[in-house]
């Protein structure tokens, strides 16, 4: 992998780059990379270009760069390299800079960094990996500003006080604004490691800061990708081969009402003068597809049979994902045994903003406006289509109307750039909802078989998990033929099990699979936390008690469980007709315990009344935002657990629109309480995903408690999975 | 065709069968009104026609003639709308924000007809889909804006 653009001597380069912008007085800095931590397979090169090899490498550090600009009105503009898709990252990272820069939150503005300084937003890494680098950037900016001010007054920099972006010379009472010294400061080289503000003195970090993007989201002025308008723009619609794996056989003639038809590998794009004209022409277009016979035979039933055979046959060469002790022997000799196989479906992402991308390609340049979680990868995609150098490519990352892992992918970008190149005009490509749901890169389906062997003391002496799923990493060539995938949530569990064995078996299914909010955790947490309840029943133990038996006093996991239990009054019986279910998730650097309270209003339906959540995020950069993300994760978790799935028949996806893809509505939303535990800055964890995985097992556990029926297959209520007007 | 959108007059040249949603977004050029499903389920496309919330994705462009259209861009002209916009910010309701235009158009109409909406009123009125799960805070915003 490469993580250049972060050498210490890059400061000068970036200063030039931004000073050239001519926006008044500027002081700019490249942030140092935060080399701690790693996102699997996500790296960008110095040029902003991304090669397949770089993406495939197991990255050992993320490249983060950004700027601080002091504006003429003494506000500061903070660039950020992430994707704002509702999780508040733009605000959280800016808080880190503002804290160290000694400005007030009201003085902060934000803007997107160029792709070369961006990073992939995913894995709940946005704030936890980059906060240190952003704080350093703020401290470095303050360092040069302070020295520039001191030089004007010919005093010791350390003697100056600073507040709200204004230096005071205590000897004379004279004041200098940042904006008055920014030009001089920009000529200085910042100290490599200026001191950071101690946590006890935080003014902005750890406080609920109002999100910078919200005013534009209530008055219609926010620009999502789908809202981009550029001069002379035309509009494109996509029509994919309905059978996954099929390809375009012949390019159809341009129909009436359209400007062009552009052939793509597995689709055609129809270009017209409005979005609707393009949709209409695409829908009416008759297209000849080439469909391999194997592709046309793909069905959910046949894929399930394959997974069942793989479950029986075992690992096929993959190394065990986790092995502690002899879990096979211990299981065999255990006093009580639980074996249960859990099944999860393919899941569509369903971002409210459908996939879209606007592109303009000329002979010597390309410009792209796109809602993306991976701006640097977009540069690489444009290069694939155009052959242009990265320096000739401009990417404008927009706000995302949801990302959920889907907007990491490059399929829609590749299409838009290809169409733009073909028609020679700016083009906005918009997928209709049916294309968006029908041609997703789905959360993998899977089978997980859990075995828990209980000793005479009713404690788990043996834990085994065998996971059979297709592999997003393998489909992208990021892991070799025997690499593991989708084991998160099955390995490194916080429980004190006597022995452990976790195996991954790759399902070679050809359904395109990708990264769905909480990825492997969304699969394994359902299996493990359902099995824990089943084992508790076998042991005649209360589900909370049984979990606590495996969580030593003082552990973070025990504390989140106890905190959630206290919130809902676990030891007090629920109201008549209701039952509770509990589940614990650890992942993304955080821990979340959920307790749900449900009833059965009519036979075979579930109403969720309450959710008590406790989450340990280490340190809450923006506590209000932590609560929001947990609320959102809980609601998405309830929707997907009850109804979410995509099935396949004759190679075609079932998901088409909200008519058969149901999401929770206001009237179905439970009362949610979230208790945020802060166990320490050293435990800074992610918040975007950890709320999702515990919902499915908590609901299944509650259902078993309420009805006596154990549901081991998701979704829990597949026949209720549609919505009407 | 001539439109009255947010009190301004627009001269529109488009296929009268085009959905009103796309006429507003692509032809009038106001993009606050969102496409989510195109089949009148998600309600991201909600606008007011003569003051009444309507899903614009299956209405025809010609149905926008001779009526007053209000979009989220014009919501601040309505005192109740303005109050709700502020309440949405105060309680930090939006996440990705994509569905919030439609949410606000429906919520404002609810509060105009029921100045102190109950939870049941809110449940009945807000049928909008939000994939981020902002419902608890949208409810909170409506309560806050109505002094509850």
List keywords for this structure.
heterodimer; A: 725 residues; alpha+beta; Aldehyde Oxidoreductase, domain 4; 3 domains; seven-stranded mixed beta sheet; five-stranded mixed beta sheet; 19 helices; 26 strands; 29% helix; globular; disordered N terminus; B: 148 residues; Ubiquitin-like (UB roll); DNA polymerase, domain 1; 2 domains; 5 helices; 5 strands; 36% helix; 13% strand
Structural description of this entry:
The complex is a heterodimer of chains A (725) and B (148). Chain A is α+β, with helices and mostly antiparallel strands. Chain A has 3 domains: 10-209, 2-Layer Sandwich (Aldehyde Oxidoreductase, domain 4); 225-292 and 355-430, Aldehyde oxidase/xanthine dehydrogenase, molybdopterin binding domain (Aldehyde Oxidoreductase, domain 4, 2-Layer Sandwich), CATH 3.30.365.10; 300-347 and 442-720, Aldehyde Oxidoreductase, domain 4 (2-Layer Sandwich). Chain A contains 19 helices and 26 strands. The longest helix of chain A has 28 residues, at 126-153. The relative contact order of chain A is 0.11. Chain B has 2 domains: 2-74, Ubiquitin-like (UB roll) (Roll); 76-145, DNA polymerase, domain 1. Chain B contains 5 helices and 5 strands. Chain B has helices at 20-28, 79-90, 100-113, 119-125, 135-145; strands at residues 2-5, 8-11, 46-49, 52-55, 68-70. A 5-stranded mixed β-sheet of chain B has the order 2-1-5-3-4, covered by helices on one side. In chain B, a hairpin with a 2-residue loop joins β3 (46-49) and β4 (52-55). The chains are: A alpha+beta (725), B alpha+beta (148). At the A-B interface, α6, α7 and α18 of A face α1, α2, α3, α4 and α5 of B.
Enter the CATH topology name of the largest domain in chain A: Aldehyde Oxidoreductase, domain 4
Radius of gyration of chain A: 27 Å
Strand arrangement, largest sheet of chain B?
A: 2-1-5-3-4
Q: Any idea of the CATH topology of the largest domain in chain B?
A: Ubiquitin-like (UB roll)
